[in-house]
Amino acid sequence: MNIVWFKRDLRIVDQPALAMAINHGPIIPLVIIEPELWEQPDLSYRHFKFYRDCLKSLQTQLADHGYDLHIEIGDARSVLSNYHEKLRFTQLFSTQETWNGWTYERDKTIHDFCKANRITWHEPTQNGVIRRLKNRDGWAKHWQDFMNQPYPNIKNKSPIPPSGIIPNAKDIGHPIDDNLDIQEGGTQQANNLLHSFLFTRGKPYTKAMSSPVSAFDACPRLSAHIAFGSISIREVTQKTHQRYDELKALPKTPDVKLWKSAMRSFLGRLHWHCHFIQKLEDDPSME
Question: What is the pLDDT of residue 179?
């Protein structure tokens, strides 16, 4: 039995850790909700509400493909230790992530746990960030090569009803504010936003992004979805390239010119996303 630990990769399409684990045998999909993480100053109820939406979406996606999502509350090392006592699993799968200093320290403890218990921890990458990069020479080409690769999907099994209960903020002692105007999370929402940006909202993006008044509608609004992994940056990049190629084949009207400019601008910012995370990966003290 292999453990697939979902962190900020809450989807099944282009989820390399899930695809890799399935090729190694039977799996348990696992989410660990860590109360101490949600006490960190850079996280709020707004983040948790979005995260919880993404978990609901992930649970449904997995159940539709025949997998039951296990949901645990606690510190990751203790949870994984309990699973190891029961299952004696020898392989752990999770996508590589660059987040805050707390998660960096937590991952070091998981590395020690895996080493002590002879568990192989696989961390396939889900974006263009390279761990332990010696220098930046060739980084841009690596990013483009990664984004051009076909992404893995998982095989269908018979659907099952989801069984796990997803805790709310109160269950983990996280404070709740009274702001209900919060963006909804989940893969379906991410796909809806991407489609509406590429075909309806995005035409004025190049200029409209600079003002909060116009950016509200003209920007993709996918940042949170990419951050929590309800959609992969590779899927977003490939679909944007596809849209740009379709536009290039159209007659050169003023509207088409605006759309092409918008797609080029957005592709540049998708590149910047990984570029600046790479800086944090190379030098965590920047935080």
Answer: 72
* Contact call for residues 94 and 123 (beta carbons, < 8 A): yes
DSSP secondary structure letter of residue 98: -
Give the CA dihedral 14, 59, 124, 41, nearest 10 degrees. Answer: 110
Residue 92 token pair: 């752990």
> Nearest 5°: phi and psi at 15?
-115, 90
Order of strands across the sheet with 2-6?
A: 70-73, 27-33, 2-6, 91-93, 120-122
Residue % of the chain over a pLDDT of 70 = 100
Burial 69-107 (b: 16+ CB within 10 A, else e): bbbbeeebeebbeebbeeeebebbbbbbbbbbebbeebb
Longest dimension (CA), the chain: 65
**What is the pTM for the complete model shown?**
0.94
The tokens of 206 are what?
């190049």
* Count of CA atoms in the C-beta half-sphere (13 A) of 25: 7
DSSP letter at 37? Answer: G
Q: How far apart are CA 5 and CA 212, in angstroms?
A: 37
- pLDDT the model gives residue 14: 97
Query: How far is C-alpha 152 from the geometric centre of its chain's CA atoms?
Result: 15
Averaged over 139-145, what is the pLDDT? 93
* Residue 85 pLDDT exceeds 80: yes
Cα–Cα distance between 153 and 5 in angstroms, integer? Answer: 17
- Helix axis angle for 254-282 and 233-248, nearest 10°, is 150
How far is residue 281 CA from its own chain's centroid? Answer: 16
Q: Select from 225, 223, 2, 8 the least CA-distant residue to 107.
A: 8
Round to whole Å and give the CA distance between 128 and 275. 8
Do 2 and 24 meet the contact criterion of CB atoms below 8 Å apart? yes
Tokens standing for residue 144: 């483009």
